[in-house]
Amino acid sequence: MLKPTLAVALIVPAAAYSLIPHAPPTPTTSMPHAADDAVEPEAAPRRAPQAADYDEVEIAGFAVLVERAFLRDDPTHARRTLAALTFDLELCVERLPGDAVNGLREWSKVWVTRALPGRAGFTAAALCYHESEAWVTTHGYGKERARAVEVCNAANYLAWRAEQPMSILHEMAHAWHARLGHPAYIDEAFERAKASGVYDRVGHALGGDTRRAYAMNNSREFFAELSEAYFGRNDFEPFTRPALEAHDSPGAAMVRRAWGIGEGPGR
User: Fold this and answer.
1) Do β-strands 54-59 and 110-112 pair in parallel, antiparallel, or remain unpaired?
2) In whole angstroms, what separates CA 12 from the centre of its chain?
3) Calpha distance 74→113 (Å, rounded)
4) pLDDT value at residue 46
């Protein structure tokens, strides 16, 4: 069983590696190019790279679009990002039901961008799922991004994997939620959990005081966060599947239904 805590000795797929100009070996010492946690939207937003600015490769059966300028200007960092993404996509393939994996491959492409410019109301902090074609088009990101999972800040993606090892699966859960058509039973499970208060004060992977779980933001985050715990490890309690079953058994049942565990994908 894969352990999503360290991406050690990963091999970038040949198709992706061939895009990287003269990439040196990944250094054994840590590199100081992880961005600060805070990423603010730009006052005068830069042009967002468009589909024509990317090269497409296949990783773990997913179509992956990699920003060409990232590969050219920072090949070592690009190689490290692709290695991490390879691990995370392979983990999704291993952990998620096969029908869901096939559905996700059809539904979403994965984009890799060194640092996507933000917009008013949207901070490209690390990863995102672009659900609305109208929104990405009107905000200058291009309609091709619709339904995509995107690494929108590569440095933060790499840094935050320490406490959020299932972050790619989290975004895939958003994509799957959309593909299912946002079924009412997920909203109902969220409202029940919210009313119960069981997520009001929980622990976090980085320690410190207990806090309100990120899952309580809305039903989309509820489904994605519980999927992290069910299939791997979340950064908020409950951290793992056994803990989720004990903490919120109706929530665990909702995850099984949505991902089609024991039956076809639930609508």
Assistant:
1) unpaired
2) 19
3) 12
4) 77
